[in-house]
Amino acid sequence: MSAIAIAKKDFQDAVRSRGLIALTVIFVLFTVAGAYIGTQVAGLLGDEAGDTLDLIIGLQTPASFLVPIIALLIGYGAVAGERESGSLKFLLGLPHTRQDVVLGKVLGRTGVVAVSILIGFIAGMIAIFAFTGSFSPVEYAIFTLLTIALGFVYVCIGVGLSAMTKSTTRAAVGAFGLLALFWILWSVLAQLLLYLTSGSVFPEPPIPGWYVAFLSLPPGPAYGSALGAILDEGGLAVASTYEGQGLVEGGIPIVAEPWFGFVLLAAWAFVPLALGLLRFDRVDL
Q1: What letter does residue 208 receive in the DSSP assignment?
Q2: Closest of 75, 66, 116, 63 to residue 223, by C-alpha
Q3: Sequence-ordered list of residues with C-beta below 8 angstroms from that of 5, at least 6 positions apart, any chain
Q4: Membrane-crossing residues (predicted)?
Q5: Which of 43, 118, 165, 261 could pair with 226 in a Cys bridge, judged by C-beta atoms 3.0 to 4.6 Å apart?
Q6: Residue 62 to residues 4, 17, 55, 133: CA-CA distances in angstroms?
Q7: Using CA atoms, how far apart are residues 193 and 183, in angstroms rounded to an integer?
Q8: Is 284 contained in some domain?
């Protein structure tokens, strides 16, 4: 219960700040603009208005960029900020354990991200109905819940890094260094490994299964895979680029299968959080 108490306090502090309002406005603008652009693109392709799944496909990539930034901004200072200010010693002077503090911060800050996403996506739902005249609540609810799950993953990463470090500066460098790794360096590393193993920078048939698996590992592609598994839309997964044409040597590896996206998301959430807890339990404040 101590973790719940910390989470409630953390969430209430966020509600009273302007940060939650700013995040909510961002998500409202993001979803409404995305719904409008999606319908315009559908019109250019010959459809009168895209259906809910078409619009989800259009929103998935921007969401995989926007949500991590917001979640890491909220999460990286959760524990390190308390250490810098000295308030962490006061907090631990109450009947709270270090584990309570870390888990409470994760729950409270995930709640902040979730509220922002929910309000923003409700606005998007209204926009989709207004622009298309039709709406699939089940598909959109799945998309919303999995987007919240992506936010939870990055909050765990941010709080885990925050628990490992003594300063918010180091936590911020670590958090946004990970974003650079996932968004830029990961694909560069994949091309480098491909070059070392095949002598070519660009994949040529038959494409090695490890290459597709490696590209599927980061949280963003895992989010797309999970969405594709639930919505039965293979185009959301990295493997779909190669699967339909049978270009992958030996078939699609299990790591790149859509359902495995849930396993990867769980790993990206709980491994950094566990490492942060282990480190936080051993350090002197």
Answers
A1: P
A2: 63
A3: 96, 104
A4: 20-37, 57-79, 112-134, 140-161, 173-196, 259-278
A5: 261
A6: 32, 26, 12, 23
A7: 17
A8: no
The angle at the Cα of 191, spanning 189 to 192, to the nearest 5 degrees, equals 60
**Among the residues of 16-136, which ranges form H helices?**
18-44, 52-75, 80-85, 87-93, 98-132
155, part of any domain: yes
DSSP string, 128-191: HHHHHS---HHHHHHHHHHHHHHHHHHHHHHHHHHHH-SSHHHHHHHHHHHHHIIIIIHHHHHH
Neighbours of 244 (CB within 10 A): 10
H/E element, 269: helix 260-282
Instruction: Quote the pTM value.
Output: 0.91
Question: Tell me, what DSSP letter sits at residue 225?
Answer: H
CB 163 within 8 A of CB 102: yes
User: What one-letter code names the amino acid at 221?
Assistant: P
CA angle 113, 65, 239 (to 5 degrees): 120
Average pLDDT of the chain is 83
* Number of compact structural domains in the chain: 1
Is the pLDDT at 227 greater than 80? The verdict is yes
Q: Would you say 236 and 225 are in contact if contact means Cβ atoms under 8 Å apart?
A: yes
Cβ atoms of residues 228 and 236 within 8 Å? yes
266 domain-assigned: yes
3-state secondary structure of 75: helix
Confidence category of residue 41, pLDDT binned at 50, 70, 90: low
Query: Does residue 285 lie within any of the structural domains?
Result: no
In the block, which residue shows the tokens 């009273």?
16
Angle at 66 between CA 167 and CA 11, to 5 degrees: 55
Residue 144 neighbours by CB under 8 Å, 6+ apart: 117, 118, 121
